[in-house]
Every structure is written in C-alpha cells, then in structure tokens.
C-alpha cells in the first residue's frame, strides 16, 4: 500500500479502483468546467500569514457546528451515488464521519437509503433534501428523515434543473452501470470494486426506488430526475419545507448576496455558500470569492458555511479566516471512499485535520476561535471588479 500523505494520493487510488463512469461523475463540472477548476485555483490565490514565537502547546480544532459538537469545523457534503464509488459507500462514509466526530450528510440521490444508513450507524446524520414536483413524496422523505432521527435537514437550492456534465452523458452514467461493450471493458479491470459490489444488495437509488411512485428500477432514473425535480421551487416553498421539518435547517447553494439576504430572513441555522462543486452554473464565481461578501451581508444573522473547492486543511483555515463557521467537503472524502472504503474516508479526515492543525500553529493560532481575518493575505481585487452591467 503506498504512503498516503495528501488528498491527491487518495484521488489517484480512487481513479485506479473505481469504474471510469463513477470516477468521472465525481471529477466533473458542468460544460467547460471553468467554475469547477476555479473553485480550487482561487483558494491558491489566498495566502496565509506566518507568525512565530507563539506558545503552541494547547492546540485544538474542536468547535460547534449549528450547535452540535464537532472534532473540527468540517462536515461531509451530500454526494449523489456515493454507494457506486464503493459498495455501501454512504454507510461507510457515515460511520467514518461519526467515529471522527464530524457531521455526515446523506444525499436524496444516495444508493443506501435513509433507513439503511440509520440502521447501520450509531451517530445521527444530516439529510439533504431535493424538492420534487410530487409534494407527497417530498413530505415522505422528510418524514423518513425524522423517523431516522436525522439531526439536521440540508435543503439544496441550486439544482432545480441539472447542469450538463459532458462526461456523464458520454459515459452513459447509470446505477448500477449498464453493460455496454465500453463499460464491460472498463469493469473487467475493476475486479476489487466488482467483488465488493457483488456482496451488497444496495445497487439502486435507495431513497427513490420502491418509494417514489412509478419508479421500479433505475434504468430510467436520469429521465425521472429531470422530470421530477421541482422547477417551481421558490422561497415560499422553502419556508414550508422548513416548517414541515421543524428542526435544524441548513440552506445550501447560495452564491449571491441578494439570495443570502432572502435566505437569512427565513432564519435557518446556517447557509452554505456553494456552486454545487462547479456542477451547475458554469461561469459562476468560485465559492471562496463569494464568501466574504455574503458573510458581510448576513453573517450577523446566520452562520455562513462554504463548500466547493476545499481539498486541504489550509483551504479550511482560509475559509474560516474569511468568515465561514464550517467547511463542507465532497470530492475530498469521496476520493478516500473510492480508494479504500471507510478507512479511506477516515484517512481523508486525518489528512485534513493534520493540515489544519499544523497550519493553524504556523499562523500562531491554537484554537478555532482564535482564527480571524488577519490569518490571511488576500489580493486586493479578489472579490472586486465584477459588475452586473
Ligand atoms: C442522476 C443523478 O447532487 C449531483 C447531485 C445530484 C444529481 C442528480 C442526478 O450530481 O450534483
């Protein structure tokens, strides 16, 4: 087994181990992938400020996220089809997160169902909700999440319709994979993945098949998704969903100051500055560029989190210094899961915590509440010079 020292190492193993269509699903953005790329490269433009001769003996990354204890200010994002990156992927990721002490968010578009994850883990997890035209089905998802004792509802707002991802269309993405000459040739080289997949029965979208009317298999699922996601979602409906849930709520997918103000009026426990990992509106600004303007506008009313582009503890530190209360990772833990299951997710979390700990120390900070804007050096025009007209 190679020595794993960074998230990039896990990504290389994931790429070798998982079928091409699922690795590509993880590693793609929409259209030209400009936003997908800039989510990462914009973090590189921000620098950290080295400080010396500060006592570093009492270091800790412990914090609270929406009032819940956490080992570090990090949560695992909902990722569709996680159970295709590795058999039982959602259960394994939830277990790793639970043992590590950070929140795990289960996607509506998961392979393992809400009940599967609840029965096979011992820590509460968060549930991410996509809103369907079929309001009865949406309500049932909320009821199922309540019955599973999910400790927060994450409502995604930026995917009423799907951004086009060229790789998924070219690969004929489906779960389980359709057997075509191309996919068979690729699957034949992925025997470890295949052996594990043969040992589980969880190979279809567990929250949907057998629960949503008219869906009995997954062969027509992308068409079903396109037909069923609610294009008419508006703030009034968001307020109703929050009321139906009645517990802690995070609104995900905010990238605009006006939307952030509107979201904050609903008094969620947090909002997530996000462009869906660059998978939706290609050409949108990176999440990290929009973080400070949104924190300045609504940070006094609600906690502001960030996702999209976080691949290291240094990225987490930069986001916290720029006002985020927590960072959410998607690809960074999926690489670990695809590489080596639960142990890989744990490895991803350990890598990020170590990077965060060391970088905080080298910036002269022992605890999360000592992280402030003076940790970072930001180019003058980082958020500026963008005009709507
Ligand atoms: C066939 C899956 O969040 C993503 C997910 C949701 C995709 C729904 C369709 O891929 O960005």
Number of domains: 1
**CATH superfamily, called what?**
Aldolase class I
Helix % is 40-55%
Biggest sheet character: 8 strands, parallel
Q: On the 0-100 scale, what is the average pLDDT? A: 96
Q: Largest beta sheet: what is the strand line-up? A: 4-11-10-9-8-7-6-5
First-to-last CA distance? 54 Å
Helix-strand string: HHHEEEEHHEHEHEHHHHHEHEHEHEHE
- Secondary-structure arrangement, i.e. CATH architecture: Alpha-Beta Barrel
Approximately how much beta-strand content do the residues carry? Answer: 5-15%
Number of strands: 12
Structural class: alpha/beta
| Molecules bound to protein | (2S)-2-hydroxyoctanoic acid
Radius of gyration over all CA atoms, rounded:
20 Å
CATH classification class:
Alpha Beta
Q: What is the tally of helical segments? A: 16
CATH topology name, in short, is TIM Barrel
Low-confidence stretches: none
Structural overview:
This is L-lactate dehydrogenase (Cytochrome). The protein starts with 6 loop residues before the first helix and ends in a 12-residue tail after the last strand. Strands 4-11-10-9-8-7-6-5 form an eight-stranded parallel sheet. Helices cover 43% and strands 11% of the residues. The chain is of the alpha/beta class and 389 residues long. It contains 16 helices and twelve strands. The model has no long low-confidence stretch (mean pLDDT 96). The chain has one domain: TIM Barrel (Alpha-Beta Barrel), CATH 3.20.20.70. The site of (2S)-2-hydroxyoctanoic acid (HOC) has 8 residues, from α11.
């Amino acid at each position: 087994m190679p020595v794993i020292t960074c998230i990039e190492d896990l990504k290389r193993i994931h790429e070798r181990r998982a079928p091409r269509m699922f690795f590509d699903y993880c590693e793609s953005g929409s259209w030209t992938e400009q936003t997908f790329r800039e989510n990462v490269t914009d973090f590189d433009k921000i620098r950290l400020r080295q400080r010396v001769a500060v006592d570093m003996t009492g270091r800790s990354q412990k914090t609270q996220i929406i009032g819940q204890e956490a080992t570090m200010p990090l949560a695992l994002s909902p990722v569709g089809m996680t159970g295709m990156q590795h058999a039982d992927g959602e259960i394994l990721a939830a277990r790793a997160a639970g043992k590590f002490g950070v929140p795990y968010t289960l996607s509506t578009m998961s392979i393992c169902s809400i009940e599967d994850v609840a029965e096979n883990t011992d820590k509460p997890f968060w549930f991410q909700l996509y809103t369907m035209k079929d309001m009865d089905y949406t309500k049932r998802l909320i009821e199922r999440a309540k019955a599973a004792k999910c400790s927060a509802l994450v409502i995604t707002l930026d995917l009423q319709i799907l951004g086009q991802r060229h790789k998924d269309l070219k690969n004929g993405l489906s779960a389980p994979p359709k057997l075509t000459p191309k996919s068979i040739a690729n699957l034949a080289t992925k025997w470890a993945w295949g052996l594990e997949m043969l040992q589980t029965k969880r190979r279809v979208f567990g929250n949907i098949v057998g629960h949503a009317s008219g869906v009995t298999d997954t062969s027509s699922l992308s068409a079903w998704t396109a037909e069923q996601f609610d294009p008419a979602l508006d703030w009034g409906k968001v307020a109703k969903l929050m009321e139906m849930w009645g517990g802690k709520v995070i609104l995900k997918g905010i990238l605009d100051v006006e939307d952030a103000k509107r979201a904050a009026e609903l008094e969620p426990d947090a909002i997530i500055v996000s462009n869906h990992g660059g998978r939706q509106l290609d050409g949108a600004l990176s999440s990290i560029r929009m973080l400070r303007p949104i924190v300045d506008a609504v940070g006094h009313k609600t906690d502001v989190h960030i996702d999209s582009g976080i691949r290291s503890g240094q990225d987490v530190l930069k986001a916290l210094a720029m006002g985020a209360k927590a960072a959410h990772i998607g690809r960074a833990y999926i690489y670990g899961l695809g590489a080596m299951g639960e142990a890989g997710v744990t490895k991803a979390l350990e890598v990020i915590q170590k990077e965060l700990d060391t970088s905080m120390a080298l910036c002269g900070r022992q605890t999360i509440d000592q992280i402030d804007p003076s940790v970072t050096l930001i180019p003058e025009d980082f958020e500026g010079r963008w005009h709507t007209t």
